[in-house]
Amino acid sequence: HSSSMATDLVLKGDYLLSGDVEGIIKIFNIKLKQSKTFNTKRSPIRKVRFAPGKGNFRAFVLFNDGVDIWDVRDRDRISTLKFPRDTIQVTDGDWASSDKIILACSDHCLRIYEMSLVDSSSSLEFQTIPQSTLYPYVIPGRHANLLKHLLCISNGSIGALIAKCEDTNLQGLLEKELAKLDADSRTYLTNTTSTIDRCLFIANLFNDPWEQSFWRLTEYYLYVYGTLNENSNRSSLPLLSTYDLLLDAKTFEQIQLERTIRRDIKSISSSASINQCIDSYI
Questions:
Q1: Can you give the pLDDT at residue 126?
Q2: In CATH terms, is domain 6-113 a member of 2.130.10.10?
Q3: Whole-number CA gyration radius for the chain
Q4: 28-35 mean pLDDT
C-alpha cells in the first residue's frame, strides 16, 4: 500500500483515513501508531470523508462508478451503490448529516440517500425546460442586434420580417426567437404603423435604457412642435422629471413649480395655509 499514490486524506480525532488509486483504504491511529488496511476491490478512490458526530467513524468513499459507506473501525462495508457506465455518473458527494449522504450527479440532480443507498429523496430525471419567452440577454449579441434592427424597420407580418434577413443561416434562429413573442406583442408589431411606437415598444422589449430615453424624447418633441399628429392616444405626453435637463423652459418651469408646491404643502398643516400656498403659486 505504501507504493500506491494516495488520492485523498481526511483526519478525525486520532484517526487518519486515506484512499489510493488501487481502491485501497488505510486507517491510521495516530495516537497508538497502528494502521489497518482493507481493499474495496473497486476503481480508484476519488474522495473519502468521515461522517459528522463524535464517535461516528463511518466513512463515505467516492469512486468513479459509485460510492461505498464503510465502518472503518470494524472494517465492514455498510452499503454500496454503483452506476453503470452508460447511465448517470457521480461527480461529487459528501455527508448531508450523520446518517445521510448527498450526491451531485452528472444529470444535474442532487440526490440524498439513506445509509442503505437504495432510494434517494430527489430521484428526478434531468429535463430540458423549453424557453417559451423571448429573452434577449441570452441571444448572441450579433443576432440580438439584427433581430432588433429587423423589428424596427419591419412594417408587416412576422413572416415578411424573417424574409428580409439575407443570411439564410440566421433565418431559422430569428424564426425561433420570434415564435417566443406573445400574441399581443405579435399583433402590435404587425398592426402598428408608427415608427416611434414600434421602436419604443422594441426598446422596452429589449430593455434598452438608452433607446427608451431617445424615443421618448423624440415622441415628446415631435408632439410639442406639431410634427406628430394629435390623436386620442396622445392627448398629453408629459416627460418624467428625470428628463429635466432635456426639457424646454416652459415644461421645466412647470415641473419645478409642482415640486415646490408639494414641498410647501408638506411643511404646513392648516387648510387655510394650504389654500394660501396654492393661490400664491397658481
A1: 45
A2: yes
A3: 35
A4: 86
